[in-house]
């Protein structure tokens, strides 16, 4: 008589054990995956918060810089306004003192035997008429007009200036008449473009037959009122 052993329960138990192990592996894998995803999401959230904080800090800094830039722009605008007002005041001072200095230079340049009869000025363009004892006196008057300058030490007349030289020798008007060398860039001519338009010899009105003749002249020039 043969003995029969029923192995079906053993196989079923093995299958259940394999199933439990599979579930454990799947569950563990799922847990690890979820944990990894959570950690990754948490790191992303943390990084996002840090980026948001950095962005907020940068925006706050930008707002501060924009405020500073606005203040600087206001200061620059006020500076330009003040500079414009100072320029106007300086121009007014020049307009007030310029004609006085120019007329002083004109009177200094006139030789003893030259008399002006008319002085007409329009926009710095001057027309002068007058009389002189001789042509030499007219020539001396023109040289005097061309030599009158304003220096850092006041009015003077150029007595020596070589072409393309960096300096000019100037005799200061007034005081002891000191002679100094000045850089050409530091001096300004009172009169430019001095042009003799007419110089005619005529007998004086009411003079006798032996009365000396006089020279009637007309000179055009440009005057510098900005000194």
Element string (H = helix, E = strand): HEEHEEEEEEE
**What oligomeric state best describes the polypeptide chains here?**
single chain
What would you call the structural class? alpha+beta
Shape: rod-shaped
Q: How are the strands of the biggest sheet laid out side by side?
A: 6-5-4-3-7
**CATH architecture classification name of the domain at 110-223:** Roll
Mean pLDDT: 83
Most strands sheet: 5 strands, antiparallel
Just give the CATH class of the domain at 110-223.
Mainly Beta
Strand content: 25-35%
Cα separation of the termini? 147 Å
Q: Roughly what percent helix?
A: 40-55%
If you compute it from the alpha carbons, what radius of gyration comes out, rounded to the nearest whole angstrom? Answer: 51 Å
Contiguous low-pLDDT stretches (5 residues minimum) are none
CATH topology of the domain at 110-223: SH3 type barrels
């Amino acid at each position: 008589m043969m003995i029969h052993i029923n192995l079906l329960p053993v196989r079923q138990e093995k299958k259940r054990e394999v199933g439990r192990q599979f579930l454990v592996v799947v569950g563990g894998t799922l847990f690890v995956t979820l944990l990894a995803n959570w950690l990754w999401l948490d790191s992303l959230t943390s990084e996002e918060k840090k980026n948001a904080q950095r962005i907020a800090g940068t925006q706050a800094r930008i707002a501060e810089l924009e405020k500073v830039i606005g203040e600087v722009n206001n200061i620059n605008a006020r500076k330009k306004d003040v500079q414009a007002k100072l320029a106007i005041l300086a121009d007014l001072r020049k307009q007030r003192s310029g004609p006085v200095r120019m007329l002083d230079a004109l009177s200094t340049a006139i030789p003893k035997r030259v008399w002006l009869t008319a002085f007409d000025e329009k926009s710095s363009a001057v027309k002068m008429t007058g009389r002189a004892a001789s042509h030499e006196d007219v020539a001396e008057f023109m040289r005097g007009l061309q030599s009158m300058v304003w220096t850092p030490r006041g009015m003077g007349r150029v007595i020596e200036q070589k072409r393309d030289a960096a300096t000019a020798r100037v005799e200061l008007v007034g005081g002891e008449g000191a002679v100094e060398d000045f850089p050409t860039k530091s001096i300004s001519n009172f009169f430019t473009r001095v042009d003799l338009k007419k110089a005619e010899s005529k007998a004086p009105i009411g003079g006798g037959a032996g009365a000396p003749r006089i020279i009637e002249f007309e000179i055009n020039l440009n005057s510098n009122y900005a000194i």
